[in-house]
Design goal:
It is built from 11 helices and 12 strands. The protein has about 290 residues and is an alpha+beta fold. It folds into 2 domains: about 35 residues, no CATH class; about 180 residues, Hypothetical Protein Pfu-838710-001 (Beta Barrel), CATH 2.40.320. It starts with a helix and ends with a helix. This is CYTH domain-containing protein.
Length: about 290
């Protein structure tokens, strides 16, 4: 009898294996797993401030002409909230508070970052999916930030509240209270339940930075050039960080236009061969 039972078990296992091979059957967990998020792409390069700015304040005419910039720069104030030891940043999160001069709202963005190693975007998406950032969560926008050397996958949650038109921020306490009261669940539950709220309540404003944003076109894509006058490393002056960027939903378009843009910037002598780290500079210097 024992021999017959073992034979029957072998037959059942073999039959099930055949069904799985033919039908592609998966376990319930795998079958119900959400698909990876589908990211858009933002290509970013640093520009040499000494070569593209006029007296350190505005873009030179040749730069405006190269990117068909016809309007004056839009103005905005930007600040990031984190603790002195950068608790949020060390866990891959940034909390940004922004006010655009021409908008009647304060804009809050909570961003989670994942490193893309050796260009393997799918591996980064897989990791994010395991942590709950998937195509099923429409509260976050997935994006690949593609700079000179590296790529970073980010998930951004945007909130806003009404505000007077103009270039004025609320007090630091008011801005922090708004960020805390609108904190998304994924940030709040990072590491342990309530971790995000606790960390954010201990944060302070890094900034603000008065940013000028020019808008033009390149290769048929809307293209922005931002000037960030950031406090210098020694705290005695200002370092002008100038960044050019464009966005697209298509990887091939991003790759092709990125190559063209890099070649143009190199030919003009405007390119800084380094990654843009303006957020880190603001966090570290304010």
């Amino acid at each position: 009898m024992k021999i017959k039972v073992k034979s029957t078990k072998r037959f059942v296992i073999a039959a099930l294996s055949a069904v799985m091979l033919v039908t592609g059957w998966q376990s319930p967990d795998k079958a119900n797993a959400a698909a990876n998020a589908v990211p858009s792409y933002e290509v970013k390069f640093l520009l040499n401030a000494d070569k593209v700015l006029r007296n350190g304040l505005t873009l030179q005419d040749q730069v405006e002409n190269a990117f068909q910039i016809e309007e004056p720069a839009a103005k905005m104030l930007v600040e990031y909230f984190d603790t002195k030891s950068l608790t949020l940043n060390d866990s891959g999160w940034n909390a940004r508070f922004r006010k655009k001069e021409d908008k009647k709202k304060y804009e809050m963005t909570y961003k989670k970052r994942y490193a893309v190693v050796n260009g393997d975007i799918n591996a980064a998406l897989d990791q994010a999916n395991r942590e709950g950032f998937s195509a099923a969560d429409t509260n976050y926008e997935a994006e690949i930030d593609w700079s000179y050397h590296k790529q970073t996958l980010s998930f951004s949650n945007h909130k806003d509240v009404s505000a007077p038109k103009g270039l004025t921020l609320p007090s630091e306490k008011e801005a922090l209270d708004l960020l805390v009261s609108n904190i998304p669940g994924k940030l709040d539950k990072t590491n342990t339940p309530g971790w995000g709220t606790t960390a954010l309540k201990q944060a302070y404003a890094h900034g603000p930075v008065s940013v000028s944003k020019y808008t033009g076109t390149f290769d048929g894509l809307k293209t922005d050039i931002e000037l960030w006058p950031i406090v210098s490393a020694d705290g005695t002056g200002t370092e002008n960080v100038v960044e050019i960027s464009f966005k697209t939903d298509d990887y091939q378009t991003a790759a092709s236009s990125r190559t063209k843009l890099m070649e143009l910037l190199e030919a003009k002598g405007w390119l800084v061969p380094a990654d843009s780290l303006k957020t880190n500079l603001v966090l570290e210097r304010y």
